[in-house]
Amino acid sequence: MKIRLATVWLGGCSGCHMSFLDLDEFLIDLADAAELVYSPVMDVKHYPENVDLCLIEGAVCNEDNLEILHQVRARTRTLVAFGDCAVTGNVPAMRNQLGLGNPENVLQCAYVEHAQNNSGLPQGNGIVPALLKRVVPLHEVVYIDHFLPGCPPPAARIKALVSQLLAGAGVKLAGSDLKFG
Question: Fewest 10 Å CB contacts: which of 5, 34, 137, 138?
Fold first, then answer.
């Protein structure tokens, strides 16, 4: 029986998903072992129930990220913080220094002070999700089963982790699995 696999993209650059696609022919093996049930690379609007494994990229930056993260945790057996933004906050967390605890400062800076055209805050419900006071890594919000470091994690590291999880083995990333580049 195939496992139910999902990938999620929160506040980040999608580099982790690009690295995932670099799995090349392992994606064929993965398709034999897993059913992709949710991902930004497919057109599914709502995160499903009973997901076995989810790789979740990006930091928690706004209310929408917070909501989906809680939903993902509640509906997923094994959750992997996928890449440095998910693990540490990384580049998205640099906003914490700009906002100084007030996310409105960040919006003002981006949309008014440094705008070249059409200066002004975006208007309308749902255009810009409400920013959190601080950008945080996933583990500051929910329990994370495994951490997959890298910016982005190389395909070989992703393959090592996913292969171990598919085999039902204990996860151990060491040696060449952790090499960068």
Answer: 34
Do 135 and 64 form a contact (C-beta atoms < 8 A)? no
Q: What is the CA radius of gyration of the chain?
A: 17
Domain count for the chain: 1
Q: What is the CATH number of the domain that holds 141?
A: 3.40.50.700
* Position 171 in a domain: yes
Q: What residues have CB less than 8 Å from 166, skipping those under 6 apart?
A: 3, 30, 33, 34
**pTM, two decimal places:** 0.90
In-domain check, residue 116:
no
> Does some domain include residue 123?
no
Residue 115 confidence (pLDDT): 85
CA–CA separation, 141 and 149 (whole Å): 18
Beta strands in the chain (DSSP E): 3-9, 34-38, 51-57, 60-62, 76-82, 131-136, 146-148
